[in-house]
Amino acid sequence: MAGAEFIDRSPMITKLNEHLEVDLQRSALVAVDLLRGHLDADCATLPVPAETSERVVRANQRLFALCRRLGMPIVHVTQVQRRHPAPSADVLSNPFWAAVHAVGESLTPGMSSALERHNLEGSPQAEIVPELRPLEGEHIVIKKRLTGFHATDLELLLRSLGVDTTIIVGINTNTCITGTAFEAMHRDLKVIVVSDCVASGHGDDLHRAALQNIARCVGWVLDTDELAAKLGTTVDADADRQASLA
C-alpha cells in the first residue's frame, strides 16, 4: 500500500452532496466515544494526539451547541468495559485486542496504549470529556465493541425518536465511526459524518481513508458549516457558545 493515492471521486461526491436533503425533525446527533480515554492526555489509554484532541473537542462543542439550539436529539454512545480479575478485562476477551496486548504493541502510532485498562467501568477513561458532557434530556447508550449498534438499544432508541438520519461524530474515524456508519446504513438510515468532529488515534492515514470510504460507499461527509446549511441555518458563534455552556 506504500505510495497509494486516493482515486478522485470528487465529482460524484459533489453531486451527492448537492442532492442531500436533511430533515431536522427526523435527525439525531450520534456522538461516539468522546471519552477521556481518547481525548484527555492526563489519563488516555487509547489516545488521540493532543493537538487533534483539542481540535475535535472544540469542533464538537460548536456542533453540540448548534444541535441544542435547534432542538435536535443528541445520543451519547460510550464504550465501557467490565472489570475482571487481573490480569484480564472484558476487552481482552477479543482475540485481536488480546494479541496486541500480548505482543506489547500499541494501536496508537507514536504513543503508548493500554488496552487492558481502556474504558473500564468506573474509571476516568470511561467518562465523557467535561466540555461535551450530556445535558438533561439527552440520551446515553453503552456499547462494548466498535459499533454503536452491536448489542445495544441504539436502533430502538432512534426508531422511537422517529429518526431516519444519523449525524455521526466522535472517535475513532476508521473503527467506531466507520462501524457505526455501516450499521446505520444497513438499517436504511441516512448517514452523515461530520468531518471536523471526528478523528483517529490510529493514524491520520486511516482517518483520511475512512472519510473517503464513507463518502464514496456509505453516506455523506460534511463539515459543521455544510451541515448547518443543509439544516437551513448557520452556526451562530455567540448563541452557540452560550448554548455549549448551558
Taking strands numbered 1, 2, ... along the chain, how are they ordered across the largest sheet? 3-2-1-4-5-6
Helical content (DSSP H or I, runs of 4+): 25-40%
N- to C-terminal separation? 47 Å
Sequence stretches where pLDDT stays below 50 over 5 or more residues: none
- Mean pLDDT, as a whole number? 94
Assign the structural class, choosing from mainly alpha, mainly beta, alpha/beta, alpha+beta, or little secondary structure. alpha/beta
Q: What is the overall shape?
A: globular
Radius of gyration: 18 Å
CATH architecture: 3-Layer(aba) Sandwich
Strand portion? 15-25%
At CATH level 3, the topology is Rossmann fold
What topology does this entry show?
Blueprint: H1 10-19, E1 27-32, H2 36-39, H3 50-70, E2 74-79, H4 95-102, E3 139-143, H5 154-160, E4 165-171, H6 173-186, E5 190-199, H7 204-217, E6 220-222, H8 224-230, H9 237-244
Parallel strand pairs: 1-2, 1-4, 2-3, 4-5, 5-6
